[in-house]
Amino acid sequence: MIRYVLRRVGLFVLALVVTSGLIFTLLRILPGDVAQVIGGIKATPDQLDRIRTTYGLDRSLPDQYLGWVGGLARWDLGDSLVTGSPIAAQLGEKFSVTLPLCALAVILSIAVGVPVGVWAGLHHDGVAGRLIAVGAQALASVPVLWAGLLLVVLLAQGVGLIGLFPSQGFPVDGWAEPGRALSSLMLPALTIAIVEGAVIVRFVRSAVLEALPQDYLRTAAAKGLTRTGALLRYGLPNVSLSVLPVIALQAASTITGAIVVETLFDLPGIGSMLVGDVANRDLVKVQSEVLVLVAIVLVVGLVLDVVQRLVDPRLRRSGAGA
């Protein structure tokens, strides 16, 4: 097991290195001049040259990349080219919005998706079960932006049919006002949870359908348990092993959804900051932000692999000789 974890950590580090190179290269392909953005449209050629020298933009691309990666190795994400502020401090501030948003979306999607998926699997031959299957398929295909606009029309205060939650902004004092802060995140979290929860419903339903014909459930039913009771008592552990990777991947994908909904709902999170930094051509800041987001997704995958190995004896046996 230790060898397996060390191997996965090595692959994680390799993936980060490769990703950092791709991010750095792709951002340099984008059109536009960073020095021009910093200096403004009235900057003279001499002023632009001084800006390039000050921010190291006149160095070769390999030198710039190695300087950035060297800073990352020291846990230094660098400073913004546009504002000069430390990137790490700004990321910490923005993550105080984005991470709770993603966590709330994951909780809502699991809280709804798992029981609905189990119920749809148990009642797959009924009208309601079929309707849930079709509805989950449809909702899983809905773009996050459309889901957000629909929820604004339905639930937003002031403009919605049922004014439950605010549709824009976040408290200035942040989590010093927890009630208002949580209320501000509800519509964005529901927007993400609708799409992610629909995917979970589909996979949970499929896992239940695969488990129902198994001999151990038939034996449990023969001993007097109902089909539902047999599934809940003996089938859910096996179902959870099949569904766990899906839930983990959906949790990671909430970051992508957060980038969209933060812009839609005017939340001061990392998604909104990333969109603004791309527009401002703040290359160092953008590349650090994207790499941090990728690292979070890779960490989720790493933790998932290790957890699956711990809880699934079949994986431990298959890798015993590795």
Molecular structure report:
- It is a single chain.
- By secondary structure, this protein is mainly α.
- The chain has two domains: 2-73, no CATH class; 88-280, MetI-like fold (Orthogonal Bundle), CATH 1.10.3720.
- The chain has 13 helices and no strands.
- The protein has helices spanning 2-29, 34-39, 45-54, 61-73, 87-122, 127-140, 144-155, 178-211, 215-222, 227-264, 270-279, 283-311, 313-318.
- Helix 7 packs across helix 10 and helix 10 runs antiparallel to helix 12.
- The radius of gyration is 24 Å and the shape is globular.
Brief descriptors of the model:
MetI-like fold
In short:
The chain has 322 residues and is an all-alpha fold. It has helices spanning 2-29, 34-39, 45-54, 61-73, 87-122, 127-140, 144-155, 178-211, 215-222, 227-264, 270-279, 283-311, 313-318. It has two domains: 2-73, no CATH class; 88-280, Orthogonal Bundle (MetI-like fold).
